[in-house]
UniProtKB/TrEMBL annotation, chain A:
<feature type="domain" description="Aconitase A/isopropylmalate dehydratase small subunit swivel">
    <location>
        <begin position="1"/>
        <end position="117"/>
    </location>
</feature>
<dbReference type="InterPro" id="IPR033940">
    <property type="entry name" value="IPMI_Swivel"/>
</dbReference>
<dbReference type="GO" id="GO:0016853">
    <property type="term" value="F:isomerase activity"/>
</dbReference>
<dbReference type="InterPro" id="IPR000573">
    <property type="entry name" value="AconitaseA/IPMdHydase_ssu_swvl"/>
</dbReference>
<comment type="function">
    <text>Catalyzes the isomerization between 2-isopropylmalate and 3-isopropylmalate, via the formation of 2-isopropylmaleate.</text>
</comment>
<dbReference type="InterPro" id="IPR050075">
    <property type="entry name" value="LeuD"/>
</dbReference>
<dbReference type="GO" id="GO:0009316">
    <property type="term" value="C:3-isopropylmalate dehydratase complex"/>
</dbReference>
<dbReference type="InterPro" id="IPR015928">
    <property type="entry name" value="Aconitase/3IPM_dehydase_swvl"/>
</dbReference>
<dbReference type="InterPro" id="IPR004431">
    <property type="entry name" value="3-IsopropMal_deHydase_ssu"/>
</dbReference>
UniProtKB/TrEMBL annotation, chain B:
<dbReference type="GO" id="GO:0016853">
    <property type="term" value="F:isomerase activity"/>
</dbReference>
<dbReference type="Pfam" id="PF00330">
    <property type="entry name" value="Aconitase"/>
</dbReference>
<feature type="binding site">
    <location>
        <position position="347"/>
    </location>
    <ligand>
        <name>[4Fe-4S] cluster</name>
    </ligand>
</feature>
<comment type="subunit">
    <text>Heterodimer of LeuC and LeuD.</text>
</comment>
<feature type="binding site">
    <location>
        <position position="410"/>
    </location>
    <ligand>
        <name>[4Fe-4S] cluster</name>
    </ligand>
</feature>
<keyword id="KW-0411">Iron-sulfur</keyword>
<comment type="pathway">
    <text>Amino-acid biosynthesis; L-leucine biosynthesis; L-leucine from 3-methyl-2-oxobutanoate: step 2/4.</text>
</comment>
<dbReference type="InterPro" id="IPR033941">
    <property type="entry name" value="IPMI_cat"/>
</dbReference>
<keyword id="KW-0004">4Fe-4S</keyword>
C-alpha cells in the first residue's frame, strides 16, 4: 500500500447527502476480476449529465472529494474505494461516512476524513468560489488546511501509523500466527465445518 | 460485569488484545461469492499464501447469475468470466462451492442458515453488507470489503475496533397483514440511514420474540440500511427448533452442550446499551418507501411527503432530489402510485415463508395487465420446497414469472433489471437511484404488499383486494 502522509490538491465539491455505493459505482461495473479500471464506473449515472461536477473542466484536476453526509452507505463493495482511487482521488472529506466504506477506504489507503458539517459547507463555498483552491490533508498533523481554514480531525493512532507506514494488515496479523493457533485449540467443539 | 449479547460474542472471539490496537477477532465462518472475492484470491496468489481454513469457508454463485436457462453458458461474457473465476479459485484453494444448478446453490445469506452453518454465538463474515442477516441467530455477523475478505482467507481473523451497542425494543404485537419487513422499514424511517452508524443493533421485545426465524432474518438483514453493520436477536427455542436436524447442526451430546451455551447468549438484565430506541408494534401498518434511500418511507395509508415539511435542510434537499428522481408529487396518496414491475425475492424476502405469504395473496387472482411480476426464490432448496407446496403453479397461474435462485433484480447485476423510467414494488432492501437498473425507480415493500400491488397495479395491501 502507498504511504500517506500529507496530500495537497484541488478539490471537488459534491453537494449531495446519502451518496450510496450504488451511486459511487453501479453494480454492472463490478464484474471485473482485477483491482484496476473501475474509474469508468465512478458516479456513472451522474456523469451522463454535463452539469455534474466531475464533468466541469475547472474540477478536472481534483484529488480531494468534499462530500455530503452519509457518504458510502449501502453495499460493502470495495470497488467503490477502487473507483475513487482509480479516478485519482486521494482523500474524501465528509461529516459522516458509512462504516464499511470507511473501513474499506482506510484499508486501501484512501484517506477518509470526518469534519463537522459547517466546515464541509465552508470548504464547498471556498472551492466553488475559486476552483483552484488547494486543500491540504495532513495526516501527520491530523489537519485539513485550505486558505485561512485550519481544521483538526480525529483518527486513531493505530490507523494513522498503518497509513503513514503503508502497512498491509495481513502482514501485521501474520506476526501473531501462534496466538491464532492457540485460539483454535479452544474453539467450541460443535462449531460447524464446511467440508 | 453485566454485558450485552454482542459483547459476549465479541469477547469469546478475541484472539489477541493489545493496548492501542484493534482486537484481533477469530472468524468462525466465511461466506464467499463471485463479486467480492476475485481480487482477494488474486492477492493470496501474488503473496504465495493459502487459505488458512478452507473448512470454515463456503462459496456460492448468486449476485451475477442469470435466473433463466442456467444450464446454458452465461450470455454476458464479463459475468461469465467472474463466475468462472470463482470456480477456478474455489478449486485451486480447496473451497467448497455451490454452483448454479447445485441443490444448495442460492443467495449466500439464504444458504448459510438453510445448511445449519449459521449458529448462535458465531462470528460470520462475507464480502456483502447483508451478512447482518445471520445475526437473527444470535451470531455476530457483518459485511466486509475485499481487503478484509483476503485477510480472513489468509488468517481466519480480522482486526476490529469494538462497536457501540443499540437496543431496538419492539413492544406489543403486529396486526394481521403487518410483517417483519414493515417493522424494519419503520425502524429505518425512525432512526435514519445513518442512525445505526457505529453500532451493533440488538432487536428485543415481545414483537421480536413472536417472530419466526425467517422473519427475524428479514429484520437483521436490513440493519445495514439503518447504518449498523450488524443486527442481532437473542437465540431462544424458536432458534433451536429451526437449527435442529439441519445438515451442519450439532448432533447428539454436542447438541445438548451447544444449546446449553446458546442459552447464555442473552443480554444481562443490568447491562447498559449505548443507545435505546422504542417502537410499538401495535401502531404499525404496511410500510413502503417513496424515496431513494431506505429511510425515506411511510405508511401505505399516507401520502408522498412535501419536502418543505422537513425541518433539517439536508433531509429537505434529499427529499427534493428523491421526488424528482422518483417522479412523484407531494400529496399523492401512496396507494395511487402505479408500478410496472413487482419483484419478490432477495436475501431480505426470498425465503419460503415470503413466497407462501405472496402466494396466498395472489392465489386465484391475476397479475394486472400492465405489470410484470418476477418471483425469484432465494435458493434452489427454497425453489424445490415451493414447488412441492404448489406455490410455483399459483404464481404461474396468476401470470407471474417463476425463476431460478439468485440475487436477481435486487441489484440488477444479471439480466433482470428495470428499464429507465420503470417503477417497481420490490421486496428487496435498497431503493437507491438506479439500483435495479439505470433510471429505474424502486419502492421497497413486504411480500404481502408486493403481491397485492401486482394484482391492483398500484401500491396496495391485501386488505385493498
Amino acid at each position: 500500500m502507498e504511504k500517506f502522509t500529507v496530500h495537497t490538491g484541488r478539490a471537488v465539491p459534491l453537494r449531495r447527502s446519502n451518496v450510496d455505493t450504488d451511486q459511487i459505482i453501479p453494480a454492472v461495473y463490478l464484474k471485473r476480476v482485477s483491482r484496476t479500471g473501475f474509474e469508468d464506473g465512478l458516479f456513472a449515472a451522474w456523469r451522463a449529465d454535463p452539469d455534474f461536477v466531475l464533468n466541469k473542466p475547472e474540477y478536472a484536476e481534483g484529488t480531494v472529494l468534499i462530500a455530503g453526509p452519509d457518504f458510502g452507505t449501502g453495499s460493502s463493495r470495495e470497488h467503490a474505494v477502487w473507483a475513487l482511487q482509480n479516478y485519482g482521488f486521494k482523500a474524501v472529506l465528509s461529516s459522516r461516512f458509512a462504516d464499511i466504506f470507511r473501513g474499506n477506504s482506510l484499508k486501501g489507503g484512501l484517506l477518509t476524513v470526518v469534519l463537522p458539517q459547517p466546515v464541509i459547507e465552508k470548504l464547498w463555498d471556498m472551492v466553488e468560489a475559486d476552483p483552484t483552491t488547494e486543500v491540504t490533508v495532513d495526516l501527520v498533523e491530523r489537519q485539513v488546511r485550505a486558505g485561512d481554514l485550519v481544521e483538526p480531525f480525529e483518527l486513531d493512532d493505530y490507523t494513522r501509523w498503518r497509513l503513514m507506514e503503508g502497512l498491509d494488515d495481513i502482514d501485521l496479523t501474520l506476526r501473531h500466527t501462534d496466538a491464532i493457533a492457540e485460539y483454535e485449540k479452544r474453539r467450541k467443539p460443535w462449531l460447524p465445518v464446511t467440508q | 460485569m453485566a454485558r450485552t449479547m454482542a459483547e459476549k460474542v465479541w469477547e469469546e472471539h478475541v484472539v489477541r488484545r493489545a493496548e492501542g490496537e484493534p482486537d484481533l477477532l477469530y472468524i468462525d465462518l466465511h461466506l464467499v461469492h463471485e463479486v467480492t472475492s476475485p481480487q482477494a484470491f488474486e492477492g493470496l496468489r501474488l503473496a504465495n499464501r493459502r487459505l488458512r481454513r478452507p473448512d470454515l469457508t463456503i462459496a456460492t454463485e448468486d449476485h451475477n447469475v442469470p435466473t433463466e436457462n442456467i444450464f446454458l453458458p452465461i450470455a454476458d461474457p464479463v459475468s461469465r468470466t467472474q463466475v468462472e473465476t470463482l470456480r477456478k479459485n474455489a478449486s485451486e484453494f480447496g473451497v467448497r462451492l455451490h454452483q448454479m444448478g447445485d441443490i444448495d446453490q442460492g443467495i449466500v445469506h439464504v444458504i448459510g442458515p438453510q445448511l445449519g452453518l449459521t449458529q448462535p454465538g458465531m462470528t460470520i463474515v462475507c464480502g456483502d453488507s447483508h451478512t447482518s442477516t445471520h445475526g437473527a441467530f444470535g451470531a455476530l455477523a457483518f459485511g466486509i470489503g475485499t481487503s478484509q475478505v483476503e485477510h480472513v482467507m489468509a488468517t481466519q481473523t480480522l482486526p476490529m475496533t469494538p462497536f457501540k451497542t443499540m437496543a431496538v425494543n419492539v413492544t406489543g404485537s403486529l396486526k394481521p397483514g403487518v410483517t417483519a419487513k414493515d417493522i424494519i422499514l419503520a425502524v429505518i424511517a425512525k432512526i435514519g440511514t445513518g442512525g445505526g452508524q457505529g453500532y451493533v443493533i440488538e432487536y428485543r421485545g415481545e414483537a421480536i420474540r413472536a417472530l419466526s426465524m425467517e422473519a427475524r432474518m428479514t429484520i437483521c438483514n436490513m440493519s445495514i440500511e439503518a447504518g449498523a453493520r450488524a443486527g442481532m436477536i437473542a437465540p431462544d427455542q424458536t432458534t433451536f427448533d429451526y437449527i435442529k436436524g439441519r445438515p451442519h447442526a450439532p448432533k447428539g451430546e454436542l447438541w445438548d452442550q451447544a444449546v446449553e451455551y446458546w442459552k447464555t447468549l442473552v443480554t444481562d438484565e443490568d447491562a447498559v446499551f449505548d443507545k435505546e430506541v422504542f417502537l410499538d408494534a401495535d401502531e404499525l401498518s404496511p410500510f413502503v418507501t417513496w424515496g431513494t434511500n431506505p429511510g425515506q418511507g411511510a405508511p401505505l395509508d399516507s401520502v408522498v411527503p412535501d419536502p418543505a415539511s422537513f425541518e433539517d435542510p439536508v433531509e429537505r434537499a434529499a427529499a427534493e432530489k428523491a421526488l424528482a428522481y422518483m417522479d412523484l408529487k407531494p400529496g399523492t396518496p401512496l396507494r395511487d402510485i402505479r408500478v410496472d414491475t413487482v419483484f419478490v425475492g432477495s436475501c431480505t424476502n426470498g425465503r419460503i415463508e415470503d413466497l407462501r405469504a405472496a402466494a396466498e395473496v395472489i392465489k386465484g387472482r391475476k397479475v394486472a395487465d400492465h405489470v410484470r411480476m418476477l418471483v425469484v426464490p432465494g435458493s434452489q432448496r427454497v425453489k424445490e420446497q415451493a414447488a412441492a407446496e404448489g406455490l410455483d403453479e399459483i404464481f404461474k397461474a396468476a401470470g407471474a414469472e417463476w425463476r431460478e435462485a439468485g440475487c436477481s433484480m435486487c441489484l440488477g447485476m444479471n439480466p433482470d433489471t428495470l428499464k429507465p423510467g420503470e417503477r417497481s414494488a420490490s421486496t428487496s432492501n435498497r431503493n437507491f437511484e438506479g439500483r435495479q437498473g439505470k433510471g429505474g425507480r424502486t419502492h421497497l415493500v413486504s411480500p404481502l404488499v408486493a403481491a397485492a400491488t401486482a394484482v391492483r397495479g398500484t401500491l396496495s395491501s391485501p386488505a385493498d383486494l
